[in-house]
Model the fold of this input.
Amino acid sequence: MEPILLKEFIYWVGVVDWDLRNFHGYLTQRGSSYNSYLIQDENITLIDTVKAPFSHEMIERIKSVVDPADIKYIVCNHVEMDHSGALPAIMKLAPTATILTSPQGAKGLQKHYRTDWNTRIVKSGEEISLGKYQLKFVLTPMVHWPDSMVCYLEKEHLLFSNDAFGQHIASSERFDDEYPFTTIMDEARKYYANIVLPYGTIVKKALDAVAELAIDIVAPSHGIIWRKHLKEILTAYHQWSANETESRALIIYDSMWGSTAQIADALRFGFETSHIRTSMFHLQKNHISDIMTETLTAKYICVGSPTLNNNMLPTVAGFLTYLKGLAPQNRIGMAFGSYGWGGQSIDQIDGVLQDCGFDMLPLVKVQYIPETQTLKQIESNLRTKILGD
Done:
């Protein structure tokens, strides 16, 4: 793939990872890209690098535009190694280049690479002249690491947005008017739910800072570049960062002999007859990252497990650990399940959902195999609780 022109003298020189299927436990069925950008100016500037195994491919793209030795600045918006992994390779070719990064970025680079590279710390609002272009920096700590920042090319109204507005998509197409829009938004939603969700309050502050900039193009570190659907992705980020939910229920469970699955069905009937859209997710058949995508806007999150060895099933425990770390807010939770004698799993689930800060519906605990009348009562009780509320 050749370098791709974003604007005059501004190129995408990143790489596409067609084979990536797992990113920190997040299932990436469509692969991903590591986006690096080259600005050809009096002071040639590289915005971020790529994952280390792809260094050669990035460097070959750079070489087709400029001699890497002539690079003056390398911007490190984020230290994580899918962004900075090719720094050692490019610094061998451009040993006099200055790395521009945040205060936490400088610390992170030292701890990652143990080098004496020439590093310059930039502050939020600071501007650096590249010649024709002026590059402005905005620090965005905890979106999603302490070192995170974005940079803005003022003359071209181009925002290099780091992990914000990204998606995991491997594609020969680089722009949002070249690729199916619904797929881009689906992947942007999944990306937010599985990576950015815990930092909603900070995202809102970052959005406020970015709102002061005139933006024609948003160039993220992963996936498709935004130039046509800016309004749609910005609106979505405002909604997601506000933890806005819709009247929708998720029923997430595992089952040994089918009893907990029967309870899950009874709950589904209770929600549906209360006119609440409902989705079911068996944890042996659905990946936790796909389920998390659905929690982004769902109001009700119901989690069920039978009891195994005085505990919930490992699939359920794994999901709850993942859910708690991503910290969705303003949700209503519910624990349910069947048991043989101890029944500890349901109380454990209830406790974790309470620890998440959820408002809780009464838990449902059934010994052994639920009778038809019991299932009807579960359905009726849920409907009464919801409609009564």
Remarks:
- The chain has a mean pLDDT of 95.
- The first helix runs from residue 55 to 63.
- The domain at 4-241 is CATH 3.60.15.10 (Metallo-beta-lactamase; Chain A).
